[in-house]
Amino acid sequence: TLTDYQGIEIENAAETRVEPVNGNDLYLSADYNVQCYVQQAAEKVLKVKKAKRVSVILMNPQNGEIYALVSLPEYDLNEPFVLTKAYEAEGKNQNDKLNDMWRNPVISDSYEPGSTFKIITATAALEERKVTLQDSFFCPGFKIVEDRKIRCHKTQGHGSETFKQGVMNSCNPVFMEIGARVGAKDMLRYYHKLGLYERTGVDLPGEANSIMHKLDKIGAVELATMSFGQSIQITPLQLMRAVSAGINGGRLVTPHFALEKKNPVTKEITEYEYKEKAGAVSKETSQTLREVLEAVVAEGTGKNGQVEGYRVGGKTATSEKLPRRSGKYISSFLGFAPANHPQILGLVLIDEPQGTYYGGVIAAPVMAEIFQNVLPYLDNL
Ligand SMILES: [Zn+2]
């Protein structure tokens, strides 16, 4: 018989028993070997640059399949309540420290992307026909916007340059200018088209969303800083998704890990399906973007991202963390290959590196090292 906590018999409480059944097998896009290559490169740069964190994502920009995701420092999944050294020292309570250790910044944290976001601005300007690769510009080292003098990273200026050279130089005044040509309203329309106002829909928990200016709060200064990736915040995965659409012919894909599940008894396979939205970018603009981003790596600020025997496209970024002038940076490099038909897109983020902090100098070589291993491996799959 079944009784309640006082021992009184419960009437009509026939025992029911549900026999356990084996769960389905889950098949993921994560690739053990690719993950090992990425892990190795990330651990090396974390140590050499004495960085606070290093994150790397590798995915297929054609369909959103994630091949590898690393976020260091890590913890032991078998001992989730044991704080690792990296999270011990901070003056927080135990719960906050554990939450810091458990969180996956690639998915749960937004950041100011800096110059990798210029890809988004370029996409909008090309798509709106507000600029062509041959248009000429002049960078004196700054641009006056209303009452503010906003500097280029090259303070002595880039001088005369075409738009293509402006992208290769990662010249801020060029992007402020084309951002102004597009205008705030249309710029936000492209943010929408490129999925920057929504979560990516990745099949992992705790995904954050972007933090953007409201249209009525965007003056000339805000528009200028947005154009080179400041004063807005997005997650690394939102950036990956938007750039994927930019370079894959305009399809907005859903980043994901789960491919299919298999019933171990019936052997029945169910494939997972993910949302895909075509037409985020035209094929022509996508082609132009691939071309100009290949030039960034071939002869611009992304030179250290080159891999012998492969056509690589990409963009560097060095963003100063808030509050400004704290001397804390996030250095990053976003790269893809082969440049003419991208099969892999990677993002390396080095949070608070010590010493040299330029993305082109410290993050691009990490991506190159990963690509050197991963590209031949994928070719042979
Ligand atoms: Zn410049």
Number of helix segments? 13
Low-confidence stretches: none
Domain unit count:
1
Helix content, binned percent: 25-40%
Could you tell me which ligands this complex binds, including any ions or cofactors?
zinc ion
Largest sheet: 5 strands, antiparallel
N- to C-terminal separation?
Answer: 60 Å
pLDDT averaged residue by residue: 95
CATH topological fold name: Beta-lactamase
The CATH homologous superfamily: DD-peptidase/beta-lactamase superfamily
Question: What is the topology?
Answer:
Blueprint: E1 25-28, H1 32-48, E2 53-59, E3 66-72, H2 85-88, H3 94-102, H4 105-108, H5 118-127, E4 136-139, E5 142-145, E6 148-151, E7 159-162, H6 163-169, H7 172-182, H8 184-193, H9 220-227, H10 236-247, E8 258-262, E9 269-271, H11 283-299, E10 313-320, E11 329-337, E12 344-351, H12 359-362, H13 364-379
Antiparallel strand pairs: 1-8, 2-3, 2-12, 4-7, 5-6, 8-9, 10-11, 11-12
Bound molecules: zinc ion.
What would you say this structure looks like, in words?
The protein has 381 residues and is an alpha+beta fold. The chain has one domain (27-80, 92-379): DD-peptidase/beta-lactamase superfamily (Beta-lactamase, 3-Layer(aba) Sandwich). The protein has 13 helices and 12 strands. The protein has helices at residues 32-48, 85-88, 94-102, 105-108, 118-127, 163-169, 172-182, 184-193, 220-227, 236-247, 283-299, 359-362, 364-379; strands at 25-28, 53-59, 66-72, 136-139, 142-145, 148-151, 159-162, 258-262, 269-271, 313-320, 329-337, 344-351. It has a 5-stranded antiparallel beta sheet, with helices on both faces. A hairpin with a 6-residue loop joins strand 8 (258-262) and strand 9. The longest helix is centred in the N-terminal third of the chain and has 17 residues, at 32-48. The structure holds zinc ion.
